[in-house]
Amino acid sequence: xxxxxxxxxxxxRGVLSRLLERFCPHITVCxxxxxxxxxxxxxxxxxxxxxxxxxxxxxxxxxDILDAYPRPxxxxxxxxxxxxxxxxxxxxxxxxxLLKPIDLQDLIAVTNELEAxxxxxxxMLRDMPKSTTNGKIILPTLQxxxxxxxxxxxxxxxxxxxxxxxxxxxxKIFVSRTLREIxxxxxxxxxxxxxxxxxxxxxxVCKVHKGDGLVLVLRDxxxxxxxxxxxxxxxxxxxx
Length: 240
Description:
5-stranded parallel beta sheet, 7 helices, single chain
């Protein structure tokens, strides 16, 4: 499992990194960060499986990072000197909460639990069906599985191999599936791909803006770019 350490203290990051390397061989530290801004950038770049997160950070705190990920695809282990944030951490669905100085046995136990949970989730995702008998699709999320009717989906946006499914209601569901994998379980006639990063439901489009480039406007006012290579295909799909 890849891990990101976000802590404003260099010594604390170093201690945790060395402990993980020596005693938790199934955890690989892919990056470190010391602030809210750097932490968010590192998450986007590295897509870690687990984030070891301090409460006190430069430019804010660890909860500011989680506010940017209401449906994260990574697990969070708080490691902090404060014991009065535990309840708030669990409200944010943190996987665990460890106090500094780090107790080695507690760290080993938590990382073993992370590995076991990850293996169970992998097995569940391998064996699960991709759709239900009534036409709904099944997508994996951090919290479990989302069962969605294709008619509920407005569009899907993909970034670095992960996708955000945006519903007509405005809800965003972050899933660990590529755009291609999602396309494979959706009705082909109802969806089209105007851009390499987007998948759009045909009925969700209400306007087409033509200018230097083609832009689709959805019913919720979201603008969707159309790539030059997909322009003709999109116009055909819309009957234009």
